[in-house]
Fold this sequence. Notes:
By secondary structure, the protein is mainly alpha-helical.
Amino acid sequence: MKYYVLVSLLLLTACDNGTINVPPDKVVITDQCLEREIFKECLTVVPPGPLATKYNDWDEVVVECRRSAYYMSQRQRGFIKEECRGN
């Protein structure tokens, strides 16, 4: 029984998720310039928020704009200008 566990552990340690040998310019990162542009555009096209609410509806709009901008601005490092790469 312990041989099955040992073999299973050995096989699991040999697994590779495929990201170790990716060239640096192919790594997907956020284009921060594009993210900022998409976020600003999103906030300009949404209708104005209500004047009074019982909870903050506008906060949900901002969070969704931020989330959409983040995912839409994912690019391979090689396609992003140096000043837009961030960290």
